[in-house]
Amino acid sequence: MKICVTSTGNNLDASVDPRFGRCPYFIIVNTDNLEFEAVENPSANAGGGAGIQSGQLVAGKGAKIVLTGNVGPNAFQTLQAAGISIITGVSGTIKEAIERYNKGEFKSTQGPSVDSHFGVK
Q1: Which CATH number goes with the domain that contains 56?
Q2: 17/109 Cα distance (integer angstroms)
Q3: 47: in domain
């Protein structure tokens, strides 16, 4: 299954980014074999709409689950509408987050974990 992890870098040793819409990279991982694609987030520095645009990008990559630190209301709604489950409160490296996911340590989030514009500099 394809999952998406928000990331500070472009590999499995990078840290999970606490922001969904404004993370520098999305790591799209096949949980069966750990093959991955690092996708630079074009919305990381967007003036607005980062959560929606990022959600659409992740949906287009075929991810079924998102692992992240936090997700705002617009991103949550976009991901949920695309049938993607969201797990927040994730930290550590990308590899550690995937291992914890595979062990069943996470539960889906039932709503946004932060307000709109979280992580805007």
Answers
A1: 3.30.420.130
A2: 17
A3: yes
